[in-house]
Amino acid sequence: MLGITDLSTYLVGLALIILLPGPNSLYVVSVAARRGPRVAYRAAAGVLCGDTVLMTLSAGGVASLLQTSPVLFAVVKFAGAGYLTWLAVGMLRGAWALWRGREARRAERKEGAPKAAKEAVERPFRRALVVSLLNPKAILFFISFFVQFVDPAYAHPVLSFLTLGAWAQLFSFSYLSVLIFSGTFLAATFRRRRRLTAGLSAGAGAAFLGFAAKLSLASAS
To answer: Where are the membrane-spanning stretches (predicted)?
Structure first.
């Protein structure tokens, strides 16, 4: 069907891959817990747009270019690792502020401009989009995974890639939706437990540092 050799196997593999935790899903959960589902869906939209760009680039041969150009791959991967580190530092600083309790109480007492300014600066869509795009391993993954299920004899391989990509986005959107409402539920549960929230934020920041280290050590092979 549409040049796809084994759709059922692809869907099983896709589900397993999407369920693996990564910086994109972790950031969406963080936004959901802090700012609710409406803002979290902006971050989810950034993830989906980023993945769409990566899939398009992969189908266009950018993955092959990264594999054959060690310098280009190094530039992209260190830029991605640096951005993840910057996000991690922000999360750790926020966790420390929550642990001390000063900024959290001040934010609850004050309504208006200061809080709104803080929310406006974060820009969840843009952050999630950048996290997705600055990941060369994701580009390589898309091309290496998709190509296994595309019939080389099919006359319109673009349709095959579009179909596989549509399934990937459907699975990703469903999974992110579950994470968003789970994050919102956890936020409501632990809203009054600032130190526990700080611990979770610190854990998320540490995980982002791990993602950054993993990406900086990645190779194109």
So the answer is: 12-33, 45-66, 78-99, 128-150, 170-190, 197-217
